[in-house]
Amino acid sequence: MTDSVIGGDVSTTNIHITQNNGIQWPSFALVTAALILCSIGMMTDAWAVQEMEDEILGVPVSVEIEMGLDDITTTSCMGADCTIAEDDLGSMSDNCTTLAEQSGLNEEQTEDACGNTQDTATAGFVGIIFITLGIVVMLFSILSAFLGTKGIEMPFSQYYPGVGAAVILVGIISWKLILPEGEATLGYSARLTVAGLLASAMAGTYLTICHKFDK
Q: Which one of 24, 67, 158, 207 is separated from 78 by 20 to 30 angstroms, measured CA to CA?
């Protein structure tokens, strides 16, 4: 009995199970960071930013437009006097369409008047859907890491971070393609989300490599 316990086969198996049941801390940290970055990026309103500055009668005038996935904030300043206006993109699109119908505009005229607003709202909506799905996949990745400590292995869990990153990337690309062309630049919200998907992709790569070597 003593020899069988000390024997190489039993000892090696025990070590192997212990390694599998531990959290892969580098990937766990990357996915956690990705989850935080993407969540902040989705909820903040600086995906597309446009700034305009001028001077009227010696008084500096500036307008800054920060557009999120579902909101738009306009900050207008004349000297030190600033006014901030916030609007919901979906409501703006619906209101524009309603006013166009009440004014008797036909379909083509409505498209000319409200097309950009509708496309902007649609772009944000599509982006939110895909980014939310990507975040959900990241949550499953974190859940699978904790289940691993209990000896429960979720199927294909090594791919979860990479899939989450890919889904978020689809969301960002879709948002950009649907968004009307303009002079706005990417704001910090979009950059945070991109950083998050890169972190999640790195975690997925790390887990995939570890899984192959573990076999």
A: 67
Phi, psi of 46 (to 5 degrees): -135, 55
User: For the chain, how big is the Rg over CA atoms in Å?
Assistant: 25
**Beta-bridge mates of residue 66:** 49, 73
- Alpha carbons 124 and 83: distance in angstroms, whole number: 25
Token pair 């531990």 is found at: 22
| pLDDT tens string 166-203 | 999 999 999 999 999 888 899 999 999 999 999 999 99
- With left for phi above 0 and alpha for psi between -120 and 50, is residue 48 left, alpha or beta? beta
For the whole model, what pTM was predicted? Answer: 0.81
Neighbours of 162 (CB within 10 A): 21
Residues paired with 85 in a beta bridge: 74
Structure tokens that stand for 206 in this block: 């790390």
For residue 215, give the amino acid letter. Answer: K
DSSP for the chain, please give it. -HHHHHSHHHHHHHHHHHHHHS--HHHHHHHHHHHHHHHHHHHSS-SEEEEEEEEETTEEEEEEEEE-SSEEEEEEEETTEEEEEEEEHHHHHHHHHHHHHHTT--HHHHHHHHHHHHHHHHHHHHHHHHHHHHHHHHHHHHHHHHHHTTT---TTGGGHHHHHHHHHHHHHHHHHHHSPP-S-EE-HHHHHHHHHHHHHHHHHHHHHHHHHHH-
